[in-house]
Amino acid sequence: MTPLVTDSSINGVALAVLVVLFLLVAVAGFMAARFKRADSLDSLDEWGLGGRKFGTWITWFLLGGDLYTAYTFVAVPAAMFATGAVAGFFAVPYTIVLYPIIFVFMARLWSVSHRHGYVTTADFVRGRYDDRGLSLAVAVTGFVATMPYIALQLVGIQAVLEVAGIGGGDNWFAKDAPLFVAFAVLAAYTYTSGLRAPAVIAFVKDILIYLVIIVAVIYLPSQVGGWHEIFGAAKEKMDSVNQATGKPTGAFLPGEGQGWAYATLGLGSALALFMYPHSVTASLSSSSRNTIRRNAAILPAYSFVLGLLALLGWVAIAAKTDVTGLDGNPNPQLVVPQLFEDFFPDWFAGVAFAAIAIGALVPAAIMSIAAANTFSRNIYKEWLNKKATPKQEAQVSKVVSLLVKAFALVFVLTLDKANAINFQLLGGIWILQIFPAVVFSLYTRWFHRWALLAGWAVGMVYGTVKAYQVINPATGKHFGGSLAEIPGLGDMGYIAMTAFALNLVVTVVLSLVLNAAKVGNGRDRTRPGDYYADADDPRVAADLSDDPADPTRPDPV
């Protein structure tokens, strides 16, 4: 079977199906402004959080669409195809570890945010410590870490269109045109409908994804000799020598010296995921704290689908899938769309392409909204215009949501796309450094605000420098990986976890010193009962002081 991706022809049927479904979803995005309609979208609560009205099933689809992104559908199978289990399959156990973690702390964050009208984690940190500097650090980190994650979604759309026969070649404009198309579509419907757009589109995305993956997992193994043949071909490829490095191509299973890499990638990614602004935004849009916990219990259903998706990377090895792009260079990100191109009728390949493209649009929309909310609330209003009205906040957020996508395009155009999973892992290195300031502060104020800021700075600098020093041996580009030697152990590990460990050491030591010296830790605007408040809970409105100077008085909702 000759893959069409190396041909100059366009798969007209698949492309037509993709375009039709894509346009239907875009129309749904524009019409979503009517979904759970408010009198006006001129506030962050309405535009950026959907009015905080979403119930269990809407939140489930929204979080699923938010968390299971082009990283899931494109980058994880591509990593399995290119370098094996350590680089790709860690994503499965990390999602399993993730949900008990969010079950414990996310309900507390929802409650205190509901109580005080917080829109972002930086809002919470500002209220907990009354510290503009620490709040700014959390906000900037979330904003910057989201850029490579959005970029990954655009890479997924580009891969689909390239397999369909467009968007490749040596001409830079033709090659990157799909990214600009994706930018235009995202910009338009997120600007007009806010978070309601991805909430509506997520239903379509999940139905398509489940359909496509179930069909693929049942049908494809029988076409390449069964799972025995698939695992055998994968092991043979991973054991072969990479000519560029002189080492094995990858790891069929984590071997000697790779345990730390696998474990730290899994744990670090689990700790980092719900620190991202988009994860918090999707959670805070829910109507109650119990909605959060119910979702933590049922979201693992997606982990099963993720495991099946990851294995498609090895199915492609057995199928001898050609991932040569239209520019003549190998591109592992093409592996899943190319599988569907090679083995399914054109119309079904088009459905699969649409599922992947829409699977990128949903999270990209939520990410751009979340990053924009962070900028509007914690940078614009906090530092540039303290008297900004809710309408002005919302307008700034809408404009910044456009700029965020533009910054994401810069990541795509300048960083190495050969191993796109590093886009997500690079963001993880940064975002994990706000974990102490956010999660620990939900339970205690023992950690000093200045110590949290110093620990954050050490983790950010170390993580960024180490990630920059990782060079892809095949391309010679920086930021070519997310693993580096763990000091004192000698084994390779996820840079984010090493930076996080340094962050914790600095935070704990300085907290001991500053607390012993009785250095002030700022004013806490929250009370213990705030962390248990629920929708319509009388504690939200009862017994509030009218004295603006009262440190226990909540911020106005």
From TrEMBL:
It is a multi-pass membrane protein. The keyword Ribosomal protein does not apply. InterPro entries: Na/Glc_symporter_sf (IPR038377), Na/solute_symporter (IPR001734), Sodium:Solute_Symporter (IPR050277). GO terms for molecular function: transmembrane transporter activity. Residues 527-557 are annotated as: Disordered. Keywords: Membrane, Transmembrane, Transmembrane helix, Transport. PANTHER family: MONOCARBOXYLIC ACID PERMEASE, SODIUM/PROLINE SYMPORTER-RELATED. This is Permease. The lineage of its organism: Bacteria, Bacillati, Actinomycetota, Actinomycetes, Propionibacteriales.
